[in-house]
Structure formats: structure tokens, C-alpha cells
Amino acid sequence: MAVLVIADHDNASLKDNTHKTVTAALAISGDVDVLVAGQGVAAVAAEAAKIAGVRKVLVAESADLGKQVAEAVTDTVVALSSGYDAVLIPATSAGKNYAPRIAAKLDVAPISEIIEVVDASTFVRPIYAGNALETVQSSDAKKIITVRATAFKAAGEGGSAAVETVGAAGAMAHTRFVSDEIVKSDRPELSAAKIVVSGGRALGSAEEFQRVIEPLADKLGAAVGASRAAVDAGYAPNDYQVGQTGKVVAPQLYVAIGISGAIQHLAGMKDSKVIVAINKDADAPIFQVADFGLVADYKVAVPELMDELAKVGL
Amino acid sequence: MKVLVPVKRVVDYNVKVRVKSDQTGVDLANVKMSMNPFCEIAVEEAVRLKEKGVATEVVVVSIGPVQAQETIRTALAMGADRGILIQTDEDLEPLAVAKLLAAVIGEEAPGIVVMGKQAIDGDNNAVGQMLAALLDWPQATFASKIEITGDKAEVTREVDGGLQTLSVDLPAVVTADLRLNEPRYASLPNIMKAKKKPIDVKAPGDYGVDTAPRLKVLKVVEPPKRQGGAKVESAAELVSKLKNEAGVL
Lengths: 314, 249
Ligand SMILES: Cc1cc2nc3c(=O)[nH]c(=O)nc-3n(C[C@H](O)[C@H](O)[C@H](O)COP(=O)(O)OP(=O)(O)OC[C@H]3O[C@@H](n4cnc5c(N)ncnc54)[C@H](O)[C@@H]3O)c2cc1C
Ligand SMILES: Cc1cc2nc3c(=O)[nH]c(=O)nc-3n(C[C@H](O)[C@H](O)[C@H](O)COP(=O)(O)OP(=O)(O)OC[C@H]3O[C@@H](n4cnc5c(N)ncnc54)[C@H](O)[C@@H]3O)c2cc1C
Description:
The complex is a heterodimer of chains A (314) and B (249).
Chain A: E1 2-6, H1 16-26, E2 31-38, H2 42-49, E3 54-61, H3 63-66, H4 70-80, E4 86-90, H5 93-105, E5 111-114, E6 116-119, E7 122-127, E8 132-138, E9 143-147, E10 162-165, E11 175-182, E12 195-199, H6 206-220, E13 223-226, H7 228-232, E14 253-257, H8 263-266, E15 274-279, H9 286-289, E16 292-295, H10 298-311
Helix pairs in contact in A: 4-5
Chain B: E1 2-6, E2 9-11, E3 33-35, H1 37-51, E4 57-64, H2 68-78, E5 82-87, H3 94-108, E6 112-116, H4 127-135, E7 139-149, E8 152-159, E9 162-169, E10 173-176, H5 188-194, E11 199-202, E12 215-221, E13 231-232, H6 235-245
Parallel strand pairs in B: 1-4, 1-6, 4-5, 5-11, 6-10, 7-10
Antiparallel strand pairs in B: 2-3, 7-8, 8-9
Helix pairs in contact in B: 2-5, 3-4
The complex binds flavin-adenine dinucleotide (2 copies).
């Protein structure tokens, strides 16, 4: 029994989601290989080889793989699949894009966003925006699974797996990459950050969002998140969205400012260790999940919070 | 060009579902059901394509119980032309749904399939990608913009880190993200008109595909409850508690 983990990376560096997915894979089998599919990924492969418990790192490179084009990743993985009983994929937007395609090509029922491995064919996954947890058992010989990385601890370093080149799918005939618009930021990545500061509709404008949320995030060394309402209104870019249909985060500290706490938002942050909510409505549902709720206008509370943080040396 | 839009009837997104005490699933008795929000966005996009003269016909397909006819009627009231209901009381898995849709597409031969990226009940986010795989069509998921010129679609996708634009040859499967559009409310005259639009009722058996489940749900439980609800009086108290009690600063 062997498991293939598909690495999460941006061609330049390996993402922590990979280490967490390896942990899930090791709960299924001791034979875990990692596939790095991309372009110019030698450094990523070298990082993957250092993950403790990894048997082998496979490298597939092409222009389409460099852009994570679903058809290209699918063809590459399907060609490798005979050697594996399960393929585990971090549930990033790229992973969610190609995992079901791989599954359908192999006539397998995919299992989405697992948060626990019960045994080699039984898994726990959230449904209904996390309001219920389903334990499912797969009867497929091969399993195609996406993994909610926040639910697993990162595998350690210290491995020295061999790196091997494998065949990449040829150029895609019917899909062409046109362009990327990737937001560059010096902040920690949202799904991996220890602290997340999120703003909601209350902020009222993109300028206000930047004026209030960003300095607080800078002070705390935090990533910035947002509610859907804030993203829809253009206060924050789309990939800041936390929730059922955005990113799922589980930081040490989540600070929600001017966010009401709709179930779809809670679905993305309620597994945070500590939740702080600042909202002027004492009845806002966000307070039901907050460890520390401050009923206040953010216009007063956030400057005060900045001052108090400065007093403790932040 | 014909546009095909699969739509799912799901628990309304405002309903907070409760897990059944026997752990077999969630309690859907007397719960408000609606069209999946992402499907609504897909229907809206298809109707706009027709209004722009890019599409000639919008066909909606739903797989579900007899009540899924209401979901189809909702789509017809928004401007779709006709519906197909594949009636079943079974809760089919994404693979089975994709196979049935692929069979319908074999008969209907649409130029594009526009559908929701995810249903808010199962949260699988799988059917569109699987359908594209079964048909061997290109896929463009999580779309926030679709532009069709000739036999190509340029699709802007919401991805981690920002946006990606792909150009796909048609026919293709495109799945809708939340920001693709804002679905319209159906007007009363359109709701009346929708009652006269045709809905073809079929059974899964009509398509001769294997819909046997591959997954067995062993149990459904409530997630662990969070002990929230505590309040602080001031920013000073908040910082002190975060530092000394919670130890997260
Ligand atoms: C299918 C579907 C998927 C969805 N997915 C997501 C998702 O992934 N993520 C997500 O976030 N949402 C999602 N939503 C939307 C969700 O239902 C809510 O509409 C959204 O989260 C609301 O955002 P908000 O809390 O910022 O806005 P509101 O609900 O409008 O809340 C604003 C809050 O700010 C407070 N406030 C106002 N002024 C001040 C002030 N001066 N100081 C302090 N507080 C103030 C108000 O009291 C209020 O509680 C989804 C919805 C659907 C239907
Ligand atoms: C899929 C979907 C996603 C939404 N996401 C958000 C969101 O993220 N943030 C947000 O603030 N608001 C969102 N809304 C709008 C929200 O549901 C309410 O329409 C809005 O907040 C106004 O609230 P209300 O209290 O006036 O009406 P409500 O009391 O919410 O609605 C009254 C009734 O109007 C009907 N209705 C409401 N919206 C629609 C619709 N789009 N199409 C047909 N009938 C409708 C329903 O029958 C509803 O029961 C969404 C609506 C829908 C349908």
C-alpha cells in the first residue's frame, strides 16, 4: 500500500500544506511519495525531500504544470496512479480544481476536504458549512482525497528522500493559460498564519479597510482576511475571503472586526484557537464563538487596541 | 449555441441544519429548501448569455426528488427555456451525478455547461470537474468572469493568491464562483410564464449508467461545540487577557 501526496507550491517554494498532507498520508501508509508537478521546481523538490517520512520525491515539469492547469496535472497523475492506493491532495484552490478530474478519470468517488483519517478507507469530513461532520467509508480500490490541511500537524524535517524525474503530460490541446493576477504581499499567507486579522462589511470602503485592518495586522505580524461582504464590496481582494467558499483558517488567534458571524463565515474560522470579535452589536452571532468579545465601535476600539499593544511592546 | 445548466435543490443557505440524534444524517424534515446559491449564479449567467445573443437556448437539468421540479421552475422563471428532471429519491454521489449529466449532454449536445462550483449541502466541489473529465472537455472552475468569442471562452478564475485567466475551446464546463454575477429576482409575469415551460421527467434508469454508491456514510455527528460568549470591557483588558490568559501575543 503506497500513497502519493501532491505538493502545494508556487514553483519557487514548498508550502506548509504539503507537510500537513504528508501527516495525513502517513496515517494511511508508511510508504509516502510526494509529487512536485510544476516548472523549474528543483528547489521545491529538494525541500520536499527533507520532509520526515517521505520515501521518494517525483518531479514532473512542463509549462502547463507550472500553471497548475487541471488537465495537465490530471494526465500526469493518472499516468502514475497504478503504483498507488491513494492520492492525497491539499485542498487548495488548485487541488480542488484537479482532484475530482483525476477521480473521474479513474472512475473513483473523490473524498473532499478530510479532517481526520480513521483508517485506510474511512475518513471524516465536514458538510453543511461545517455544521455536521460525516464519517465516510470508501469501497473504491483507489482513493482520491483532498485534505483540509489546517486539521493536521505538519510533518517534521530531517528526511532525505531520493528525487526522481517522471513524465509530464504533453501540452494541452484545448486549454490555454492567458494570465495571472497574483497579489504580492509580504505578510504571512492566510491559511498558514499564526494570527489573522479580518475585516467585514462594517469597514465601508477599501481605504478604510487599509487604514484600519492593515496596520493592526502589521503590528501583530498577522495575515489579513475578510468576510464575503467585504470582498464583494471591493474592500479587499477575493483571495482574502475566509469561509465556506473562501479559505479555511485555524490560527492561534483570529481577530474579527465588524463581521457579524454568518454560518458561512464561521465555517472558515471557528477552529481557530482563540477568537476575538469587535462588533458594536452585542447580539452579533460572532460573539457566540468568540473567546474575547468587545462590544464597541471599531473606530474607537481599534485605535485603543493599537495603543494597548504598543504598551506591551508590540 | 445551447447552454446547459445543472441545478441542485438544497437546504436553504440561511437554515442552520441539525444533526439527527441517531447519527444517520441531518434533519431535513420541514426545512426550507432552495436552489443552491451557486446554481442560481450559473442560471443567471446562462440567461445573460442568451440576452446578449451568445446563447440561443438555456436548458436546466436537476437530479433529485419530485420537488426538484420547483427548483427547475425557479430557473425557468429566471429565463431558462426548458427543464429536465431526472427523478430519484436517492442521494446520488458526485460521480453518479456526473455520469447522468454526461449522458444528458450526449443527447443535448450543448455548446457550454455552466454550473455551480459547489453545493452548499455536501460541499463536495466536484461534479463540474468530474463531468469535464468524463466528457474529456476542458474545465474552467471558480469563474468570476466568462467571455465567449466564437468557439472559445475566456474565463477568469478565483484562485489562491488572486486571479487566473484561461482560454478554453468549447464545448467546455465552467463552474461559477460567488462573484460571477448577482442573480435576479424572477418577476411575477416571468414566474407565470415559467409554469407553461416544458419539463421533461426522466428516471436514472433511462440513461443506463452505473449510479451505485462508492461511499458509505457510517455516521454524521455534530462538530465539537466552542465555548464562546465571554466578553471583555476594554481594549486594555483584551490585550491583558490575550497576553496573560491565552498566551497568544
Ligand atoms: C453560498 C454562500 C456562501 C458564502 N460564503 C461565504 C464565505 O465563504 N465567507 C463569508 O464571510 N461569507 C460567506 N457568505 C456570506 C455570509 O452569509 C454573510 O453574508 C457575510 O459573511 C457577511 O459579512 P459581514 O459579517 O462582513 O457583513 P454583515 O453581516 O453585514 O456584518 C457586519 C457587522 O459589522 C458590525 N458593525 C457595523 N458597523 C460597525 C462598527 N462601526 N464597529 C463595529 N462593528 C460594526 C455590524 O453590527 C455587523 O454585525 C456566503 C453566503 C452564501 C449564500
Ligand atoms: C444565494 C444568495 C446569497 C446571498 N448572499 C448574501 C450575502 O452574502 N450577504 C448579504 O448581505 N446578503 C446576501 N443575500 C441577500 C440576503 O439573503 C437578503 O436578500 C438580503 O440580506 C436582504 O435581507 P432581507 O432581510 O431584506 O430579506 P430576507 O428576509 O433575507 O428575504 C426575504 C425573502 O425574500 C426572498 N429572497 C431574498 N433574496 C432572494 C433572491 N436573491 N432571489 C429570490 N428571492 C429572494 C426570499 O424568499 C426570502 O425569504 C443573498 C441572497 C441569496 C439568495
